[in-house]
Amino acid sequence: MNFLESRRQRCLAVLLVIAVLKGDLHAEEKPSPEKSKQILYNGIELPQQWPPRIKTMAPAHETDPVVPAYLQKPPAVIPIDVGRQLLVDDFLIEDSNLKRSFYALKPYNKNPILVANQPWEFEGKWTRGDGREFQGPYAMPFSDGVWYDPADKLFKMWYMGGLLHCTCYATSRDGLNWEKPKLDVVAGTNIVHAGNRDSASVWLDLDESDPKRRFKLFRYEKNPIRGNIFALHFSPDGIHWSKEIRKAGPAYDRTTAFYNPFRKVWVYSLKSAYPKAGAPNVFPVRRYWEADDLVHSPMWPSYTSPLLWTNTDRLDVPLLTSGYRRAFIYNLDVVAYESVMLGLFTLHQRTHTKQGRPKKNEVFVGFSRDGFSWDRPWRKPFVSVSDKKGAWNWGNVQSVGGCCLIVGDKLHFYYSGRAGTGRLGEEKSFYDADGSTGVGFLRRDGFASLDAGPDGGAVLTRPISFKGRYLFVNTNARGRLLAEVLDQHGKVIEGFSKESCIPVTGDKTLAAVSWENGADLSDLTGKAVQIRFHITDGELYSFWVSPDKTGASYGYVAAGGPGFTSSRDTVGRVTIPHTP
């Protein structure tokens, strides 16, 4: 390439960035350079134009569920070298006579674990469109984040202190009992950022090479003078935050952000209105914007320029109870968990009369294997509100950034709830006040299981490939579990029959599968094989092939947990003190 051509291409690149920033070029019209198709870690081949462009959306009662392309046409051979292979859909399954069950979160019996009890957590106010001002105590993540930091072996929580008032910080040794340390940012308080805020996202980036950027804060600044700003801050310790590094494009208040390590992009999960705010028959949707570089990648120029992403559909409508109308998507927090992207969908079920009760927001789960398309196979609440007036979570349950932590054999999910006027009364509160924080538990990988009764059953995987040597399962085998390995012609490979398999029994989130001759899977690495699991009276939650006898999955560990030293499971079996 000569000098003039090189200069011409640099000038075109600069003009493109300027056009996007000015809004002269819509995101959906932005040209992309010629590039080969991208094949993901799980064998999914992405189209050349990715993320995809969704042209229109419709209200939930007019929208059919969208089946991801990778479920309609899975790869011919699925690599399983990254993470535990969850059985939340049929991506990995060729044939099965087992029943699939889904599971909701089990709330901690001592909730809430964090409540407003400091003066600054009673400060702040919200002014409604009619000029009426509201106040109310808040000590709750509004996404924000709960992470486990392996550097000092602490659970760390960032949360909204007071109504839109500030960002606070708490720590815990066990994830259940929390302390609010006195810090030096605002002397004598646990405030780590005094700027006004609405929704926020905090990300502990264990893969960051710059120690000053180890923590990222995406803060929605709800200030009429500056407009609706989503500001980026960095920190070395999660306590002392930089000044605003840059601001994103215009956004609505429940906007969040996350990192997709499978494609190495940062993603803004944007609250939006379709077709646009102020238009007839407008309804909330979620929009998408990704950035390779948080500091230098272009941002969106207008509210409607980010890509249309996801919405509620017909399957959400029947969930509405008497007195409620319309199910809207209110927020979507996302994290990489093992071999999938886990999505926590907060759905808002609007009510005709509030009667002092907070918004009815509940959390539902979804899964993505390509990072953009969502499968929501279970439409019951994963995290529910309480129907008891006076309960800390009488309404407005919201997910937390980082989504979940791995604590031994369990996943910890933190979430916020609001008591409204239920605990403090109308004279001291308003319908959406009194926010606090709780936690709930789920079996590790326990979103879904394939179940067999006393008569037994079997599940056959699609053709898979791997580089590891040892097969592991997460199972509750009251009877037993056996496995056999088949070649590309469907014949059982010598040495790997179910007859020679040593039965797996008991309730174990990490159990090795072995055969009598002591053979491992090393001779089958790189080959297309299938595994058939035979189960009697039990459940199978996941399986994976590891290069290590420890059972390390090399999948992603969401917001971390005790024993993990990086963003991935490189350690396998972890022993920690008992948790409820």
Give a brief outline of the structure.
With 580 residues, the chain is mainly beta.
Folded structure, characterized:
The protein has 580 residues and is mostly beta strands. The chain folds into three domains: 1-31; 78-101 and 448-557, Galactose-binding domain-like (Jelly Rolls); 104-443, Glycosyl hydrolase domain, family 43 (Tachylectin-2, Chain A, 5 Propeller), CATH 2.115.10. Helices cover 5% and strands 38% of the residues. The protein has three helices and 34 strands. The strands form seven sheets. Strands 8, 9, 10, 11, 12, 13, 14, 15 and 16 form a nine-stranded mixed β-sheet that branches. Residues 1-34 have low confidence and may be disordered.
Secondary structure layout:
Layout: H1 3-22, H2 69-72, E1 78-79, E2 85-86, E3 93-96, E4 99-102, E5 106-107, E6 126-127, E7 133-134, E8 139-149, E9 154-161, E10 166-172, E11 178-179, E12 191-193, E13 200-204, E14 215-223, E15 227-235, E16 246-247, E17 256-260, E18 265-274, E19 283-291, E20 307-310, E21 324-338, E22 340-351, E23 360-368, E24 395-399, E25 405-407, E26 410-418, H3 421-424, E27 435-443, E28 448-452, E29 457-461, E30 464-465, E31 470-486, E32 504-513, E33 530-546, E34 556-557
Parallel strand pairs: 1-30, 8-13
Antiparallel strand pairs: 2-33, 3-29, 4-28, 5-27, 6-7, 8-9, 9-10, 10-11, 10-12, 13-14, 14-15, 15-16, 17-18, 18-19, 19-20, 21-22, 21-34, 22-23, 24-26, 25-26, 26-27, 28-33, 29-33, 31-32, 31-33
